[in-house]
Design goal:
- By secondary structure, the protein is an alpha+beta fold.
- The strands form 3 sheets. The protein has a 5-stranded mixed β-sheet with strand order 7-6-5-8-9. Strands 1-2 form a two-stranded antiparallel ribbon. It has a two-stranded antiparallel ribbon with strand order 3-4.
- The chain has 2 domains: about 120 residues, Arc Repressor Mutant, subunit A (Orthogonal Bundle); about 110 residues, SCP2 sterol-binding domain (Nonspecific Lipid-transfer Protein, Chain A, 2-Layer Sandwich).
- The protein is globular, with a radius of gyration of 21 Å.
- The N and C termini lie far apart (about 45 Å).
């Protein structure tokens, strides 16, 4: 009689449980890999170029180091990630497997669904300056930046702590700085975290935010004229914003 009982979790050894729905349905099998908390966001970070533990944790925010370590090990065991030792160092880098890379259109579709159907669940506390700055760092198109160095300063008027952030852009990389790098600033952004998040996500335009008094820019006129060319918008910037605009599969 017990052989017909199905358990939602199996393989519990040493306090580690593997999610198991005991169904042959491919959605159920996919959920066994992707359904654990944080898993999809970890894969998002890896697919966006995050390779090292600290970089992944930076993009995930509240996840504990212990849980991130556990999830990375699970994803490696499930052939979603490939772990490689960093030459000459103690740490590891994580690369997407072929199975992981094939999830990119799935995650994009999930994100587009979220833009339409989950946007109403966004709360004020969801607008996180650290996550926004990480995304802006990744969004700089280095090929469009002229000169050996560009310094961009952001002042977020809605923050009481760490109001000022800097992006130091060089030909080889862009880097977020929490302290004044001691260089001349080429462009100043003054706004709230929410305003810049909405602009980067594609919900507002720079022109509208400036006209409505929610964004003030100052600095190099060339940088201000061409912001959208060197600061690439979010991948969902051109996605449908309402059910009526959604693309219907053929």
């Amino acid at each position: 009689m017990l052989q017909n009982v199905k358990f939602g979790m199996s393989g519990c050894l040493g306090g580690s449980c593997k999610m198991n729905y005991n169904q042959f349905c491919p959605i159920a099998k996919a959920a066994e890999i992707l359904g654990e908390r944080w898993t999809i966001l970890i894969l998002r970070e890896v697919l966006m170029g995050g390779r090292r533990f600290n970089t992944l944790q930076r993009g995930l925010g509240d996840i504990s180091p212990a849980l991130l370590t556990k999830r990375l090990k699970q994803l490696e065991d499930q052939n979603m990630l490939i772990r490689r030792r960093i030459p000459g160092q103690k740490g590891f880098e994580y690369y997407p497997s072929e199975a992981c890379e094939s999830l990119l259109p799935v995650l994009f579709a999930l994100g587009e669904w979220g833009v339409i159907w989950a946007k109403h669940t966004i709360l004020d506390q969801d607008f996180d300056a650290e996550l926004l700055m990480l995304y802006l760092e990744r969004s700089i198109d280095l090929d469009k930046m002229k000169g050996q160095e560009t310094v961009i300063k952001f002042r977020f008027s809605d923050l009481t702590e760490q109001r000022d952030w800097w992006l130091l852009v060089k030909p080889e990389a862009a880097e977020v700085c929490l302290r004044d790098p001691g260089r001349d600033v080429d462009l100043y952004f003054n706004c709230t975290v929410r305003t810049l998040s909405e602009i980067w996500m594609g919900d507002r335009t720079y022109r509208d935010a400036i006209r409505e008094g929610d964004l003030r820019l100052d600095g190099d006129p060339a940088l201000m004229r061409n912001i959208s060319s060197w600061l690439r918008p979010n991948m969902f910037a051109n996605s449908p914003r309402s059910p009526g605009e959604a693309r219907i599969p053929a």
